[in-house]
Amino acid sequence: MIGNDIHKLAKQLWPYNRSLTGQGVIDTLNQISNHIPNLNIKSIKSGTKVFDWVIPKEWEVHEAYIVTPNGKKICDFSKNNLHLVGYSIPFKGTLSLNELKKNLYTLPKQPKAIPYITSYYKERWGFCLSQEQFDTLDDGLYKIVISSTLSDGKMNYGELLIKGKSDKEIFLSTYICHPSMANNELSGPTVVTFLAKWLQMVNQLEYSYRIVFIPETIGSIAYLSQNFKEMKDKTIAGYNVTCVGDDRAYSFVPSRNGKTISDKIGKHVLKWIDRNFVQYSWLDRGSDERQYCAPGIDLPIASILRTKYGEYDEYHTSLDDLENVVTPKGLNGGYWAIRKAIEAIEKNKKYKVSVKCEPQMSKRGLYPTLSTKAFDKEVKLMMDFISFCDGECSLLEIADNLNVPMWDLYDIAQKLESHNLIHVNK
Question: How far is CA 24 from CA 39, 62, 86, 111, 218, in A?
């Protein structure tokens, strides 16, 4: 079960303080590079204009904490990096509890959870803590220490290009900008890492692959600003990969178009993995598909997920962990769902039968000399498959016509092709 290895990588990445920029992103990319040595780590300078946005300053945190009136250190960034509001500016001082409360964030309805809060594009500082801890705070003076820097630097991301027989590309994107959260962050890059490892071991890929590990939103906007013209020409399918690590559900968010091959394949795969998968609409979008499918970009990008962002209680909190939320089994399911979709796109060819009328199967050893119930079923599937090989129906369409998963037809197609009974209609 590959989910065990994916989960192990997630644990290794857990401590890093990922954000839009900074050392946590570099550490994450370097760790991923141990699995994908040819990952190309690139950067864009702060202040660079990317469409309607600007690359932000680079953020680093050295230490951050609060000291209570009785001398106890709380909200210690070194103990949990969710305690500090993302992109907090430096601050040192002493405040009363009432003054400090203006910069404290909790989740009253989830009293044990530390919320995940960011302020990327407006300078402020703040701390996050559980409502339970907040309720214990006594009146008095609190010492605040935030030793951070916001300076002109760069935003880093990772890119992997894998060459296939065709220059047409399948695109996989995942984000690396959230600190210590499991399903909403680490499930995506870790699953994509192992998908990339698998793809590089496949002999003769039909299509080329473009795989990116980027900060969410600003990363996809920046990447598109540099590559969208080439991508519009080359991209035939793709998936934004996030929230693929829990074991509660399978979900699907379509592209804006809703009828791309990514949409059709994604829904077909999920139908046969889990008949109860949750199908969302484009209006339920919330990740980088917003950029990839934006008007004027219009890439065929959809999302195959386990439980979708925003649809589980632990989302954007410290409760989104690697013990109770994301599991090896859940990661295994997420990996195989996307891998099956990629395999289906690779194998979604149009076949044409090479003989007129029904071929004589027995002389090729493809028809039983002894009729049995089990073998009759296998033969019927083969003959039904041939009946749709008109050079116009894709393998996906044939599978849907026969009401079987595409992967049930892979060996049949290969066998018939080896006997020159069908050929790919190009």
Answer: 17, 12, 12, 28, 17
Nearest residue to 280 via CA among 305, 300, 259? 305
- CB atoms inside a 10 Å sphere around CB 363: 8
Is 106 within 8 Å of 130 (Cβ atoms)?
yes
CA of residue 20 relative to chain centroid, distance: 17
pTM across the whole model: 0.96
Alpha-helical regions (H) of 256-372: 261-273, 289-292, 328-347
**Extents of the domains making up the chain:** 3-56+154-347, 58-151, 350-424
Q: What H or E segment, with its residue span, contains residue 233?
A: helix 218-234
Q: What pLDDT, in 10s, does the model give residues 13-70? A: 999 999 999 999 999 999 999 999 999 999 999 999 999 999 999 999 999 999 999 9
Could you tell me which residues come within 8 angstroms of residue 245 by beta carbon, excluding any fewer than 6 positions away?
10, 182, 183, 186, 187, 190, 191, 306, 325, 326, 327, 330, 331, 334
CATH superfamily of 3-56+154-347: Zn peptidases (3.40.630.10)
At residue 71, the 3 state secondary structure works out as coil
Nearest CA among 312, 334, 332, 311 for reference residue 324:
312
Place of tokens 């995506």: 188
Torsion angle in degrees (nearest 10) through CA of 190, 288, 406, 401: 160
CATH 3.90.220.20 fits 58-151, yes or no: no
Query: How much is the pLDDT for 366?
Result: 79
